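step=encode ok
step=design start
structure_in=
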């Protein structure tokens, strides 16, 4: 139902399905299944994160890394402590039901609920097609805040079992943040390099190439989780590191397999997560406390808005492209909570946290509010505020050349100024990668291939596949023909090959044929997205065929109108003769008139109006025979022109109608005077005839 899915996000509909399924199971007397934390963290979350990390747009991510880190680290810490402190104050003032909840429990609750969820952000932001900057800021924050959430969660969980928390414990807790985040990245990089190195030797067993990508990525996640490091950071690092080297080594079929299997796997995981979230809501034990739940929801929104406003004010002092108030609003509004918070809450131990059911109820309320209310209203708000949308364009050779040129230019300017900015370090990293890393991790000659030629090959392959998929074998993409690899890597032609010389007329004729017949020479297909369906490639061809048929019918109708002679008014013989002399085209004979011109039709081309000519305009009375009454009543008589005998020429052989008067009349009727040449695309018969 497209009208529903355009208003309500997919994640909301899936939660509703989960609620219905859970209610149905409970209604028949069975116990609904609950989303176990082990199943969520070990099986459902990794595919979504790997899909996001492997296809991460690296350039915008690295260019905005500082902003993303400030939002992810400082923003999450602010949310956790601000929310935890205020909720502790609410518990102290909230009466007998909340007095027993201490500061550590509230801080732990704040750390669980404060983190933006990558699954919820992906589900909503991919549907609204927001511009790349805002998408990468919110999504990057949701990925990188995992390290902060993991540290704070384990820290407060450990502190809850301590009798006394010392200053040393707090310092060690602060240092553990760097260990967890950097340790996760290191584990990911190691497995990424191993995966790239393994793919170098798989040329003889192409079938198992995709398996190595999934295997090493999952190993990175499990290894990080084993040591309480950030598994999400490890997965992202592994995906980002291995992708350029693995894609250079593996076959194109393996690349397609990886791409579509990851998309399918992440889509299935996302669906299961949201459905289970709905089922678990019905199945779980709940303890509803109005004060606690409403305060949590209110302070979550306040903390997010204040955090974004203060941090953006600070970030804009250092950014060249400033974040506008509209951008700040979307970043604050896009802070969605999801299943990660629910699973972390579910992991809490009843022994240390007796109020776990109340925490879970508050967490589910916040998740439902952010996913349903914010998720459903963000699309109309984006349209209302006229926030810039994502441009669906593909990179071209021209853009690639200019991007590289600007990178080199800015690196040169930084070197001259003596300022070592990110362009300088990026250039150093690229040189190191080219000189040492590529030689070790990429097999064969492709390790020495220039970036531009590699990009051209990739683009050419992509267009060829799209061409075959769309069924347009005759429609050759213009980019392949215009941007020739010969220009980049020139080759000498063999001497014996001689190109045939074409005359100007022939060349112009060929150009005209190509211009009129090659319609839609380049079909652009959008990049794959599970939220949007690709349009039928044959639909355009059918539309073109229908248009041509319609034009042909209109043309035929016009020609029939041209050949139809209108009914004649009764007129005197004197007037008829006067009109023949002055304006033969306006000649309209009387029914009983003796001046009956005879129109003959050339049988060679009955559809063509040029084939209608006046062979004899002599009055029937002048030929010496009296007019027959049948011919008198017929008006204009149309007769078939006699085919000429072989060897005679229609133009130069004189006929019985070649008298001077008939020739003069023929010229008047057949030559309407000088006309401009008809332009291309105009109908055969001009309008108005």
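sequence_out=
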């Amino acid at each position: 139902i497209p009208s529903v899915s355009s208003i309500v996000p997919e994640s909301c509909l899936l939660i509703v399905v989960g609620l219905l399924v859970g209610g149905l199971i409970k209604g028949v007397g069975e116990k609904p299944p609950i989303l176990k934390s082990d199943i969520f963290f070990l099986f459902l979350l990794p595919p979504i994160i790997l899909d996001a990390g492997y296809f991460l747009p690296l350039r915008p991510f690295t260019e905005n890394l500082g902003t993303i880190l400030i939002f992810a680290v400082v923003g999450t810490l602010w949310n956790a402590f601000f929310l935890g402190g205020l909720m502790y104050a609410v518990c102290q003032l909230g009466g007998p039901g909340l007095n027993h909840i201490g500061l550590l429990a509230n801080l732990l609750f704040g750390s669980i609920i404060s983190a933006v969820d990558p699954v919820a952000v992906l589900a909503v932001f991919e549907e609204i097609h927001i511009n790349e900057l805002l998408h990468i800021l919110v999504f990057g924050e949701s990925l990188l805040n995992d390290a902060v959430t993991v540290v704070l969660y384990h820290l407060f969980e450990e502190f809850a079992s301590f009798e006394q928390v010392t200053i040393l414990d707090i310092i060690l807790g602060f240092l553990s943040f760097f260990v967890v985040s950097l340790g996760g990245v290191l584990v990911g990089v190691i497995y990424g390099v191993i995966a790239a190195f393994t793919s170098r030797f798989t040329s003889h067993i192409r079938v198992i190439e995709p398996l190595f990508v999934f295997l090493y990525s999952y190993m990175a996640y499990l290894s990080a989780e084993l040591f309480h490091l950030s598994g999400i950071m490890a997965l992202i690092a592994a995906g980002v590191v291995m992708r350029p080297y693995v894609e250079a080594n593996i076959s194109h079929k393996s690349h397609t397999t990886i791409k579509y299997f990851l998309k399918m796997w992440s889509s299935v995981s996302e669906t299961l997560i949201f459905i289970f979230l709905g089922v678990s809501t019905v199945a779980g034990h709940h303890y509803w406390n109005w004060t606690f739940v409403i305060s949590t929801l209110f302070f979550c929104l306040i903390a997010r808005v204040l955090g974004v406003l203060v941090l953006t004010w600070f970030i804009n002092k250092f950014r060249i492209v400033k974040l506008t108030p509209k951008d700040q609003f979307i970043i604050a509004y896009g802070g969605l909570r999801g299943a990660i918070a629910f699973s972390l809450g579910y992991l809490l131990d009843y022994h240390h946290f007796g109020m776990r059911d109340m925490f879970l109820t508050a967490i589910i309320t916040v998740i439902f509010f952010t996913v349903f209310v914010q998720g459903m209203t963000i699309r109309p708000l984006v349209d209302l505020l006229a926030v810039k949308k994502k441009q669906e364009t593909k990179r071209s050779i021209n853009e690639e050349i200019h991007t590289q040129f600007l990178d080199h230019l800015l690196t040169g300017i930084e070197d001259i100024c003596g300022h070592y900015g990110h362009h300088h370090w990026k250039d150093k990293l690229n040189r190191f990668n080219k000189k040492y890393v590529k030689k070790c991790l990429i097999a064969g000659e492709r390790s020495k291939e220039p970036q531009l030629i590699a990009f051209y090959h990739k683009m050419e392959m992509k267009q060829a596949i799209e061409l075959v998929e769309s069924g347009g074998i005759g429609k050759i993409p213009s980019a392949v023909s215009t941007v020739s690899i010969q220009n980049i890597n020139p080759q000498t032609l063999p001497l014996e090959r001689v190109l045939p010389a074409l005359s100007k007329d022939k060349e112009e004729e060929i150009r005209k044929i190509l211009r009129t017949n090659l319609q839609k020479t380049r079909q652009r297909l959008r990049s794959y997205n599970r939220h949007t369906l690709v349009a039928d490639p044959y639909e355009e061809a059918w539309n073109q065929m229908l248009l041509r048929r319609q034009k042909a019918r209109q043309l035929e109708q016009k020609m029939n109108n041209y050949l139809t002679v209108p009914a004649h008014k009764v007129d005197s013989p004197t007037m008829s003769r006067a009109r023949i002399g002055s304006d033969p085209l306006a000649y309209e004979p009387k029914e009983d008139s003796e001046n009956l011109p005879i129109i003959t039709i050339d049988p060679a081309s009955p559809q063509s109006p040029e084939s209608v000519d006046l062979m004899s305009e002599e009055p029937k009375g002048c030929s010496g025979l009296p007019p027959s009454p049948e011919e008198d009543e017929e008006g204009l008589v149309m007769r078939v022109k006699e085919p000429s005998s072989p060897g005679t020429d229609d133009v130069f052989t004189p006929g019985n109608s070649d008298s001077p008067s008939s020739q003069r009349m023929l010229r008047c009727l057949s030559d309407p005077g000088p006309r401009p040449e008809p332009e291309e695309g105009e109908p055969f018969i001009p309008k108005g005839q």
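step=design ok
step=annotate ok -> Residues 187 and 223 are 7 Å apart (CA to CA).
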